[in-house]
Specification:
The chain has 131 residues and is an alpha+beta fold. The protein is built from four helices and four strands; from the N terminus they run αβββααβα. The chain has two domains: 39 residues; 87 residues. Strands 1, 2, 3 and 4 form a four-stranded mixed β-sheet that branches. The chain is rod-shaped.
C-alpha cells in the first residue's frame, strides 16, 4: 500500500466516524435550543375565587424556568394588601400537595405560552388584597 492509498483510507475512516458525530452534535444543539425556548416561556399567576368569580392577576410574570415556590410567593407579595391587614398574606392552597404538583406540572409542561398557575382562594383570602 503506497502513501496516497494510506492517506485516502485514513481520511475515509475519519469521514465515516466524523459525519455521524457532527450530525449528532447538530441534533443536540437543536434540542438545547428547543429546551431553552420552552424554559423562557411566560407563565401567569392567577388568584381565583370561584364562589364570587373574582380574579387577581399580579402585574409581574414569571418565566417557566424560574417558577419556584419562593418566586411565586415573592410575586404574590407584590400585590397590594388592604391597610387593615398586617403582616403577610395567608393562602391555604400554598401549603397543599396540589400546589406542589401544579408547580411541578408547569416546570415540565410544554404548552405554548398559555400556561397559568391558578391558585384557588376563598372569599376571605382574596379579600385581603386591595385590588
Amino acid at each position: 500500500m503506497d502513501f496516497i492509498t494510506s492517506v485516502g483510507f485514513v481520511s475515509s475512516v475519519i469521514t465515516i466516524i466524523g459525519a455521524p458525530l457532527v450530525l449528532w452534535g447538530i441534533w443536540l444543539l437543536f434540542l438545547n435550543y428547543k429546551e431553552g425556548k420552552r424554559l423562557n416561556q411566560i407563565v401567569s399567576v392567577v388568584l381565583q375565587c370561584d364562589k364570587d368569580n373574582r380574579k387577581i392577576v399580579p402585574l409581574m410574570v414569571v418565566r417557566r424556568k424560574d417558577i419556584t415556590r419562593a418566586e411565586l410567593q415573592g410575586i404574590l407579595g407584590t400585590i397590594k394588601m388592604k391597610p387593615s391587614i398586617t403582616g403577610r398574606y395567608k393562602l391555604d392552597h400554598l401549603n397543599t400537595k396540589k400546589f406542589w404538583q401544579d408547580i411541578e406540572h408547569l416546570q415540565a409542561s410544554d404548552n405554548d405560552d398559555n400556561d397559568q398557575l391558578i391558585i384557588p382562594c376563598t372569599p376571605e383570602e382574596i379579600g385581603q388584597f386591595d385590588v
